[in-house]
Design a protein that fits this description.
Length: 160
């Protein structure tokens, strides 16, 4: 789809999708140790951009591939500006993985060079965008408010 924008106004393009794959599937994060219920990481062999077409090569036929792409975890497509260092965030030195994973273990048990720094925002492309949140005294979230995305390109449904 052409002319789609993230909630922060950044253009949605193949480079943004590739950046998200680069971070989420950076070894050793592409192992079942980090995504055990989610085998897309294990089956994904390579990914690249062919112009504005995102190309994924799988190691074998994997029937839930499209279904797993639609899930919000672990592979969610965020605006490059949502990453800690923006579009220049390196998947090894400034990976978007949760900070509690820092530093992820390699399959042999040694510590990897991946540094998990999290993200600074959650700008996607959907029909609703984050507006605000209320936190409890313990820091947990008690309420989140979303507003309509004026740039949404698809049907809106009947929710006001």
């Amino acid at each position: 789809r052409q002319n789609v924008k993230f909630h922060d106004g950044t253009a949605f393009n193949c480079a943004a999708v590739k950046m998200n794959f680069d971070h989420v599937l950076q070894p050793p994060l592409n192992s079942l140790n980090y995504h055990g219920w989610y085998h897309l990481a294990k089956e994904t062999q390579s990914w690249s951009c062919d112009g504005e077409t995102f190309v994924v090569k799988l190691s074998s036929a994997y029937y839930p591939f499209l279904q797993e792409l639609s899930l919000i975890r672990p592979l969610r497509i965020l605006s490059p500006a949502s990453f800690k260092n923006g579009a220049s965030s390196d998947p090894v030195t400034h990976n978007s993985c949760p900070t509690k994973w820092n530093s992820p273990a390699n399959p042999d048990g040694t510590t990897s060079s991946v540094q998990c720094v999290g993200v600074q925002s959650f700008h996607g492309t959907g029909p609703w965008k984050f507006d605000s949140k209320q936190e409890r005294s313990d820091g947990s979230i008690s309420q989140m408010k979303f507003v309509k995305n004026a740039d949404w390109w698809g049907p809106r449904g009947n929710i006001e």
